[in-house]
Amino acid sequence: MQAIADLRALLRHMQPTLAPGRYAFVTLPAGFPLDPAHVVASIREPEGLSVVLPEQVAVELGLPVAFTAAWVTLTIHSDLSAVGLTAAFSQALARAGISCNVVAGVCHDHLFVPVGQAQAALDALRALARSAGDSP
C-alpha cells in the first residue's frame, strides 16, 4: 500500500487499534544482554539505550520501569513526511487529558498511552477520525 500524506485522509482513515498487553519503557544498563525479539521500539540516548518491551519481560529481567503503557497503532499507512498528523492526534489526546508517547514506524504511527486511559484514548482518536470525515 502507498503511504498517505494528506492529513484529512490520514485522520479519516487512521483506525486506531489496541495491542494486547502492557508495555514498559526502560533504560538498559550498559552491556545489558537483551533478546532483540523482546524489543518493541528503541532509541539511543546519552543516558543509555531506551527500549519499549512487554512489561512482563521487564519485570522478569529486573529492569526498573519508567512508564507502563498501552499500545495503540494507527493502522493507516502514514507517509513519514506527512505534516500535522502527530499534532492533530496529540492535541485530541491532550484535550482528553491523556499523555502520549509516539513512535513512528515506516508504515504506522504507534502511540503509547497510560494503561488506565487506553479506552479513553481510543474514544478520543475515533472521535477525531469522525470529525475529519465530517469536515468539508
TrEMBL record:
Classification via PANTHER family:
BLR5128 PROTEIN
By its UniProt entry, which InterPro entries does this protein fall under?
ACT-like_dom_sf, CASTOR_ACT_dom, DUF2241
Q: What is this protein called?
A: ACT domain-containing protein
Which residue range or ranges hold the DUF2241 domain?
A: 4-69
* Residue ranges annotated for the CASTOR ACT domain, each copy included: 70-126
Q: Which organism is it from?
A: Luteimonas rhizosphaericola
